[in-house]
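Issue: ligand-bound run for iron/sulfur cluster - logging full I/O for the record.

Environment: standard queue, default settings, no custom constraints.

Inputs:
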Amino acid sequence: MNREDKKEAKLWQALPDGRVRCELCSHYCIIPEGKKGICKERQNIGGILYSLNFGHLIAAHLDPIEKKPLYHFLPGSSSFSLAMPGCNLRCAWCQNWDISQANERNDPSRLKYVPPEDVFKQVLRLKAKSIAYTYTEPTVFFEYTLELSKMAREEGIKNVYVSNGFMSEQMLDLYLPWLDAANIDIKAFDDAVYRKYTGARLQAVLDNCKRIKEAGVWLEVTTLLVPGVNDDHKQIEGLATFILQELGEETPWHISRYFPQAQFNKIGATPVKTVFEAMSIGKCVGLKHIYAGNMSGAADTYCPYCETALILRDRIFMQENRLENGHCPNCGSKIAGVW
Ligand code: SF4
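Outputs:
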């Protein structure tokens, strides 16, 4: 299969005049004949919507599950992590922009076609406990994730999405039965910031977090703190309150340091102090598990009831797990997670 080959997409509708409406993400692009959607990975060809990136792996690694980050989901396990190019958002500070914005105009030589069956053989050979659809935006390679997820489920291997959460309701309806865990990146708690810096809308992301949680999928949240963009106390407190009230007090929240990227390099890295301040706002609001990302010093899990250290980590590497069947060995409290 060459890059020129295409796979008919799922989740779209034909419109008059040869246009199509893509229903994969909350942009709901209306795409005229010959054109592509915002993600640049779905194209209307002759009135039919095609996925352009199906099977074109741009990254595949065996990672600790903690790297996703997921800290309360099979800690210490390995997750086969893969990506196709593309994203439906255009975050100014994207930390993976070289692969999320890669498409056929940039560097086709990097793209290698690998059928889902071949990836799955690798997953089995490496004895991964989960497959993580990650690095770029898995929603825009949804068809591939669906095929692979069905294979995984049959073998008891878990499926993990690391996503911006801007998928459509229709996509979640189709995919939630196959999804075991997700880390959703809530990038700000201000719709104007979302629209200006990412091209997406806050409410759609919040609604999808609630849907994922209600479906019984294990959910953790990440926020990359960018100085002057999303680090004011009002946004931090608003986001923490949303997590507490809508997703639950034991939902883990990963607050990460931002580092300057090639196309967004005028703002310096997030000061460590800013991350600790945000963590303490989240704790005051009532969240039980808050972690710092892209820095050392706040990666361990503590019992929210007696403060016993439960899982020790060195950044993304688990050092010791003291949980006893998901319970605190000191006070016996059940700790939220999939252990
Ligand atoms: S996945 Fe989203 S961005 Fe891409 S074509 Fe569909 S609606 Fe548009």
